[in-house]
Amino acid sequence: MKKKHFDVIVIGGGLAGLTSAIHLAKSKLEVLLIEKNEYPKHKVCGEYVSNEVLPYLEFLGFNPFEFGAKQISNFELTTHNNKSIVANLPLGGFGMSRYEMDFQLYQLAIKNCVSVLQDSVVDVNFEADNFQVKQKRIKVFKLE
Ligand SMILES: Cc1cc2nc3c(=O)[nH]c(=O)nc-3n(C[C@H](O)[C@H](O)[C@H](O)COP(=O)(O)OP(=O)(O)OC[C@H]3O[C@@H](n4cnc5c(N)ncnc54)[C@H](O)[C@@H]3O)c2cc1C
Q1: How far is CA 79 from CA 18, 76, 82, 84, in A?
Q2: Beta bridge partners of residue 84, listed in sequence order
Q3: In total, how many domains does the chain have?
Q4: Domain around 139
Q5: Which of 8, 25, 46, 98 is most deeply buried (CB count within 10 A of its CB)?
Q6: How far does residue 14's CA lie from ligand 1's centre (Å)?
Q7: 63 in a domain, yes or no?
Q8: Is ligand 1 within 6 A of the CB of residue 124?
Q9: Cβ atoms within 10 Å, residue 141
């Protein structure tokens, strides 16, 4: 890791961490993202994302349809004895594997100059106006 100074340290590179990191980096902040797992990684998830977030993803520079996302506009519930109910989803959403979505957001974070460290955070301390973030692999980052 070459950079020593960071304005923000984001702990955890799931959807919240990755989108925050990209957003902050787009605002010209030096961001360090610490994620304990290696990308790409699997995540248990229903993998339905509401279309409500599309304008925000577009602002971040992420188009899920470039990476295989499929539009979903109907909901169907079936029972074990083959009965079903179907409803339209007025707003709709898209289906996309979290393996792919998190990985593509990670790539976008790198493109936006986010520094990504694969490590597990074990402790965060706030003392004398400073944050200290401790990882499993010894190194300590300070936010002053
Ligand atoms: C079974 C299930 C189905 C779901 N289905 C849907 C769905 O269909 N649609 C939907 O919108 N939402 C769904 N969700 C919710 C969705 O998964 C979460 O809202 C979303 O993942 C939350 O994002 P996050 O970034 O907060 O957390 P996560 O995506 O869980 O990310 C947290 C990240 O932090 C990392 N981390 C944790 N501890 C540390 C540490 N100490 N140091 C470094 N890194 C660390 C983890 O490895 C992980 O990558 C579902 C959730 C579950 C459990």
Answers
A1: 37, 10, 5, 6
A2: 78
A3: 1
A4: 8-53+97-143
A5: 25
A6: 6
A7: no
A8: no
A9: 19
Number of the ligand 1 atom closest to the C-alpha atom of 135: 42
Using CA atoms, how far apart are residues 130 and 110, in angstroms rounded to an integer?
A: 26
Residue 90 is assigned to a structural domain of this protein = no
134 within some domain: yes
Q: Is 64 within a domain?
A: no
pLDDT digits (tens, 9 = 90+) for 20-40: 999 999 999 999 999 999 999
Using an 8 Å Cβ cutoff, are 71 and 24 in contact? Answer: no
Query: Looking at ligand 1, which residue's alpha carbon is closest to its atom 8?
Result: 46
Would you state the pLDDT for residue 139?
66
pLDDT tens digit string along 39-53? 999 999 999 999 999
Q: Is the pLDDT of residue 17 over 60?
A: yes
The whole-number pLDDT of residue 1 equals: 65
pLDDT, tens digit, 9 for 90 and up, residues 72-116: 999 999 999 999 999 999 999 999 999 999 999 999 999 999 999
Q: Using alpha carbons, list the distances in angstroms from residue 6 to 3, 49, 93, 132, 138.
A: 8, 31, 35, 12, 18
* CB of 31 closer than 8 Å to CB of 114: yes
